[in-house]
Amino acid sequence: MDATFINLMRDPAGVPFFPVVFQGLYILTWALHAAFVLLAIGALGLSVYGSTKQKHDNNWKLFNPHLIMTGKLSVSMLILLGVAPLLFTQVIYDSGWYVANTLSGAWVFIFIYALLAGYMMFYWYSYANKKGTSSNTIIGLISFAILVFCGILMHNFAVESISPTKWMEWYAPNGVIDNSGLNFHIDIIRLAFMVSLTIPVTGIFMQNYSDFLSTRKDFSSEYLAFVKNLGTKLAVTGLLLSAVLFVVWMLKEGLLLHPAVLATIVSVVILLLAAKANKNSYITTAILVVVALFISGVRELIRYNIMSGLGYDLYGYPMNLEWETIIMFLLTFVILGFTGVAFILTMAWKVGKTKGVFDASKDVVVTRLANATLALFIIWTMVYFAWGIFALFKNTL
Ligand code: HEM
Prior knowledge:
Elements: H1 4-8, H2 19-53, H3 58-92, H4 94-103, H5 105-131, H6 136-161, H7 167-171, H8 188-196, H9 198-213, H10 221-253, H11 259-277, H12 281-309, H13 323-353, H14 364-396
Helix pairs in contact: 2-3, 2-6, 2-9, 2-12, 3-4, 3-5, 4-5, 4-6, 5-6, 8-10, 9-10, 9-12, 10-11, 11-12, 13-14
This protein binds protoporphyrin IX containing FE (HEM).
């Protein structure tokens, strides 16, 4: 098979900037998506276990609602941060993504409704847990199963989009077209590796949680030690398991000795040592960020190798430089985005560090950041519409 038809399926309008930049942004944003996927699933899964313990154990009684809240927020973050890699993959590997959506069209629909159902059940679980309903564990378990199922569907789309040599066989097995949209293909080792990462990510989060709250007088040191020790155990065992699965996956892909893969393994070992030493969890998290970027990079390496091996020239994607789009994107991303995120993070940090109610209006930094975000947002909206209307009339009149 050669990539003639894949190249023909590319967007004739081309891409608005150098493809390598989109590739880099894809790696970055998928790592962010994955971080929240892993935290959401891990926190929810652990809280289901905690919900069976909390009746008799005060540590779990305090920790479980916090885990549930973490998981709940992480689902919204993973959805938000899933959009970015989705856009980037559609820009540079559009043919792969659209073929996957055709082969598994029914699953794509099911994915949306499953995500809605799973997330709503998560809220139900949260309320049931607050009320102390006896069925809360089972509700949490169902929500967990549905959200894991969403991840398996996502994995199915990813596997299909990087398997061009199988597309014809899947689309028309034995020459008979299958338009059910129910194609389903998984790569068990790759999937197991992704799922296993939920354990260390949750463990490292727990170390962070404990360090963060250690400055608060209303949390006992015994409770914080309980969370931290459990987190360390999860981080260490989870990382060992993930490392083994990663090596098996890379052996299967024939990439074990690739420099990027070796660098990933080294970074995982450093992460393991940092998590085990448990000295400063913020540094451990910084190492985790590097590991996540490496893993995301290796995923992209696998796809790049497959596609370029068939003759799909990613870097030769027709380009139609559009400075207006790029300037607008960068201004939005850097100026509005960074200010807005700084505002939210600063406020969240201060809320968490305060005992009782945090009054943001009395905090100078938070107030300044809030005003700056609001002003920038108003300016951004005006520029966005003015620019859009100008472009529309320039092109049509
Ligand atoms: C509970 C919900 C979700 C879970 C558990 C989940 C999990 C995953 C997993 C495990 C992968 C990696 C698959 C692999 O490489 O084998 C993945 C990839 C991806 N996810 Fe999600 N995801 C969820 C929701 C979303 C949503 C709502 C979006 C978009 C808005 C999204 C966008 C993506 C994209 C673009 C990829 C990369 C696909 C590719 O490279 O071909 N995900 N997700």
